[in-house]
Amino acid sequence: MFEMDKKQRNIAYFSMEIALESDIPTYSGGLGVLAGDTLRSAADLEIPLVAVTLCYDKGYFFQEVVQGRQIEREIQWEFSSEFVKMPNIIELDIQEKKFKVGAWMYTMSGITGGTIPIILLDTNIEGNEHWQKNFTHILYDATPFQRAVQEMILGMGGIKMLESLGFTNIQTHHMNEGHAAFGVFELLEKYKGDLEEVKRRCIFTTHTPVPAGHDHFSYELIKDIFRDRLPENYKELGGEYDLNMSLLALNGSRYCNGVAQKHGVVSRKMFPGYEIDAITNGVHNGFWINKYLKELFDERIPGWATDYKKLDDVWDFGNFELWETHLQAKLDLMDYEKSHSWVLLDERKLTIGFARRITEYKRPTLLFSDVERLGKICDKKVQFIFAGKSHPRDEQGKGYIKQISDMSDYLYDSYGIGVVFLGAYDMDLSHLLVGGVDVWLNNPRRYMEASGTSGMKASLNGVMNLSVLDGWWIEGYQRDPMAGWAIGCGPEDPKATQYPDSYDANDLYTKLEREIIPLYYNNRDGWTERMKHAIRLGTYFNTHRMVEEYAERAWKLKAQNRWKSLLKSEEEFS
Ligand SMILES: *Cc1c(COP(=O)(O)O)cnc(C)c1O
């Protein structure tokens, strides 16, 4: 990379996980996929940004599901030639030890020729003791000490490494989630304790409305790690009783945001007194479209992948061609399913998909609340595909996988209904699912979903959402109620969080029975028309629009930057 280019990059984006490619295990789920899509759009829009993450040589884990049991297999992946080892090494003081941190560089290329350098920090280098080399092995399965050190490597090590590599003109440090907040300490040292100088250079995006989702460390641990290197006002910055990484990030930033409008409201309640804006998430349209629809769009709507408003032209498509295109993607999914499961699915049947982290608040078994009623409603006409990982230590989550598998046996034997749980959820499987099912189901407990992005991917592919009004779907459904269905009450209901689960389950069954199944089987034209409504949501819920909002409100890029003019030239990239 040329020195000139390094000096022009004035935004540094820090994220504990970034989904570069499906089979590179530097991500565990939504946060990493969003970071990847953000950088893909930033590359397309030629945003002057450099990203920092850790280099997990063992990644998260490979998931196998055998008779309803999740088995976690260790991953060992090979660094391809796309990863360039940098000669630079920086040092961090941790306890009484020096930690050496090295770096790899991966270049993400956009469809327009723009690129984003991604720095992956690595402690598995010459000169570190054996135990130190392990610190960047694995994503998210660590003791509080290991985790705190990983976060120091990301936040503090990241800033030092950028400087060492020649990125010396960073104006904005973007902390994507609180994991990088130790960077605030690093900058405080650099600016001799002047918090205002630090705040001018930092922004923070929070991603979870669930209090347990925010990292906390005991001050005992933090003092042991930092020794006499903690800033004097650490309690004012990080909290009175323990160190809350989100609070540290909030206190060290000039700008903070949540990731959907409702999430902004929830975050402002969770952190009273802080100004927290909201920028609704998106997905990278060019990355998430299935290959058949992509062909159709490329031919009929040149430039659609960068000029996202053009997706409006989907109105002009014929119903038959759209349905045929969808069917091709559905057949791909069925082919995959047949080689990975014993349950026989049928591409002619209405197929409902559910794929996300399997954990309590997502209510992965809500669908089975009244299994006899479900059986009668679906009556050999509807089939279901589930996928998703549970955190290795989430025993309750793994219990849900078992329950889904048991329900699959029961519904098949008693009602002839296919329910499949596919293992090894990753971006490749996600592509197949969001491109190939007919309806995308999401039923979290209300206001615990910050945004959710898999529903946006589905919608872009003409797959209707059937979802609780939470996260992005509050906005999606409001923009166009024909793009899918809402389960249960809306956010205007003051008792929305208080109804029993059976209330949502009942509404889910009713919508299936009275609206969705009849529409699919008796009015295919009506169905296909609604697919267009779903696709049209892609004119808004995409990372190009999202990155533009960050550029204007968070990164404060000036309008004369190239990304603005690039957006205007439409014909250039088709
Ligand atoms: C999109 C995606 C997610 C995030 O989906 P949610 O709707 O936020 O649950 C998680 N994992 C993978 C592999 C994805 O592709």
Report on the architecture of this protein.
The chain has 574 residues and is α/β, with parallel strands linked by helices. It has 2 domains: 2-61 and 73-278, Glycogen Phosphorylase B (Rossmann fold, 3-Layer(aba) Sandwich), CATH 3.40.50; 285-539, Glycogen Phosphorylase B (Rossmann fold). It is 41% helix and 17% strand. The protein is built from 22 helices and 20 strands. Strands 1, 2, 5, 6, 7, 8, 9, 10, 13 and 14 form a 10-stranded mixed β-sheet that branches. Strands 17-16-15-18-19-20 form a 6-stranded parallel β-sheet, sandwiched between helices. α18 links the parallel β19 (464-468) and β20 (484-487). α13 packs across α20 (524-536), α14 crosses α15 and α16 packs across α17. It is globular. The model is unreliable at 566-574 (pLDDT under 50). The structure holds pyridoxal-5'-phosphate.
Layout of helices and strands:
Blueprint: H1 3-8, E1 11-15, H2 30-44, E2 49-54, E3 62-66, E4 69-73, E5 84-85, E6 90-94, E7 97-109, E8 115-122, H3 130-133, H4 144-165, E9 172-176, H5 182-190, H6 195-199, E10 202-205, E11 216-218, H7 219-226, H8 234-238, E12 242-244, H9 245-251, E13 255-258, H10 261-270, E14 277-278, H11 285-288, H12 291-300, H13 319-338, E15 350-355, H14 371-378, E16 382-387, H15 395-415, E17 419-422, H16 427-436, E18 439-442, H17 454-460, E19 464-468, H18 472-479, E20 484-487, H19 501-522, H20 524-536, H21 543-554, H22 562-568
Parallel strand pairs: 1-2, 1-9, 2-8, 9-10, 10-13, 13-14, 15-16, 15-18, 16-17, 18-19, 19-20
Antiparallel strand pairs: 3-4, 5-7, 6-7, 7-8, 11-12
Bound molecules: pyridoxal-5'-phosphate.
Pyridoxal-5'-phosphate is lined by residues 29-30, 33, 356, 425-427, 430, 452-455, 457.
Cofactor: pyridoxal 5'-phosphate
EC number: 2.4.1.1
Protein name: glycogen phosphorylase
